[in-house]
Each structure stands twice: as structure tokens, then as C-alpha cells.
Design brief:
By secondary structure, this protein is of the alpha+beta class. The protein has two helices and seven strands.
């Protein structure tokens, strides 16, 4: 029984770290005038289906934002993709990543935060990639980038490597 406690303590610690990163992103984006679309909720994907136990714990978490003063500007997101599953869009995820993007679509659904997983290269070097959504999912696209989660070790690195490039790119695309 002692081993089970260690496992769940480790899962709780991972979730606490992801929460801290997303809350810090909230604060940084608020300074830039962005507000969370889904208030205090995180996006994620899971199932309670008895035959899909690997889906009981979500493998990714996201926050979506819009610029409070100009609702016509593109929506942005910050997400943490932790793991893949055999039946998931994140197949082949070698390591947890932080991803961010600008949505050029009418939808603001949480699933759009997985856009990086659908890009051709799936680079984790911070370079922007374009992901086109199918017409079946509402069309549109997302400009996205990803970095290894392990490279974001402080709030200053989150701001420098994720938030600043996201805000600057969103401003460029809005012109």
C-alpha cells in the first residue's frame, strides 16, 4: 500500500507543477491584456469509460485566452502535453512539452491546444509551425510552437521562451 501512496503523490506533484505553470501564464498574459476564456477551468481530455483506463488521467492540460480590449483579435493558448497513448493524437510524444499558439479559427475548443501534435515536423525547438484544421472540425488553423517542459524551469524562462514569443506573434498576425 505504501507504493500506491508514492505513485499518487507523484501524480499530484506533476499536476501541481502544471497548475503553477498555467497560473503563471495567466498572470503574464493578464499583464498583456489577455483574459482566460474558460475562467478557472483547464482543458484536457479524458474518459471515465471502464474499458479505457489509460484515459482516466488526462495526458494534457490547456488554457485559452482572448484579448479583453479587442475581441476580434485571434485567441491564444498555452498547453502542457504530458504523455501519449496508443489511441491518442499525441502518439510518439517523446517527452512532455509546453506548447503555445494563436488560433485562426472560430472555434475555441480545448482540443485546439493539441495543434502542435498535428504539425508535420513536431519540432520542440521553439520554431513556429502552421497546423491546418480539417473542415470537419470547423476549419481554420493555428500557428504553434513547442519546447521541452524540462526547459521551463522558472517564471522568467516561461516569460522569455513562451509568453513573449506568443504575444509578439499574436500582435504580428493581428496587423
Amino acid at each position: 500500500m505504501n507504493d500506491w501512496k508514492k505513485v499518487f503523490d507523484a501524480i499530484d506533484a506533476i499536476h501541481a507543477d502544471v497548475s503553477k505553470l498555467l497560473v503563471e501564464a495567466d498572470k503574464m498574459l493578464a499583464i498583456e491584456g489577455y483574459k482566460p476564456i474558460f475562467r478557472n477551468n483547464v482543458g484536457g481530455e479524458g474518459s471515465k469509460h471502464v474499458d479505457w483506463p489509460s484515459w482516466w488521467i488526462p495526458g494534457w492540460f490547456s488554457r485559452h485566452y482572448r484579448l479583453a480590449k479587442d475581441l476580434s483579435r485571434p485567441k491564444v493558448f498555452v498547453a502542457v502535453l504530458l504523455r501519449d497513448r496508443a489511441s491518442d493524437d499525441l502518439r510518439g510524444l517523446d517527452e512532455p512539452v509546453v506548447t503555445a499558439g494563436i488560433l485562426q479559427t472560430a472555434t475555441q475548443a480545448h482540443w485546439t491546444a493539441k495543434a502542435w501534435a498535428w504539425t508535420k515536423r513536431r519540432d520542440t525547438n521553439g520554431e513556429w509551425e502552421l497546423c491546418n484544421f480539417s473542415e470537419k472540425s470547423g476549419g481554420g488553423s493555428a500557428d504553434v510552437f513547442a519546447l521541452p517542459l524540462a526547459s521551463i524551469t522558472s517564471a522568467s524562462l516561461l516569460e522569455k521562451l513562451v509568453i513573449r514569443p506568443l504575444v509578439e506573434r499574436a500582435a504580428e498576425l493581428s496587423c
